[in-house]
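Comment thread on ticket #2218

A.B. wrote:
> Attaching the input chain for the structure job we discussed in standup.
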Amino acid sequence: MTDLICIGAIAGAFGVRGEVRLKSFTATPDDIATYGPLTTQDGARDFRVTLTGQTTNALTARLSGVSTREEADALRGTQLFVARDRLPSLPDDEYYHADLIGLEVVDTGGTTLGRVKAVLNHGASDILEIHGPGLKSSVLLPFTRAAVPTVDLGAGRIVADPPEGLFD
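C.D. wrote:
> Ran it. Output below, let me know if you need it in another format.
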């Protein structure tokens, strides 16, 4: 598990006074402003977030230390992180995406299928992207209780019961 969790990203400038378009990866998008200063992955910069509104597919916000459109636009693509200990604890059947990435995936018989490369969400539910040496390309596994009956973070593995033919 990593000490930093990505909870948002800067999508570019909004307006001419240094505001940014902010994509929030929190369950409730407005919560991104409640975790205190957010930092870049390398820790070189940190920002206090003040939400100012919404736009298509993003929030609008002011970031401390950013006062011009040029400064805001230069931050496009910057991911924003928070220390894990500032995030709420999750119920037993919920996981932070960062905790799933890299876990070994085995089938119900114990055969290794690969590792979680990414966790995708296209609106309906999460999908695990599985990559492994025996696979010609990545496999997309629905992250449902039926397809993924067990997640064992302590052991660093996921037990999957994939639909027939998915890993052939």
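A.B. wrote:
> Thanks. Noting for the ticket: The mean pLDDT is 91.
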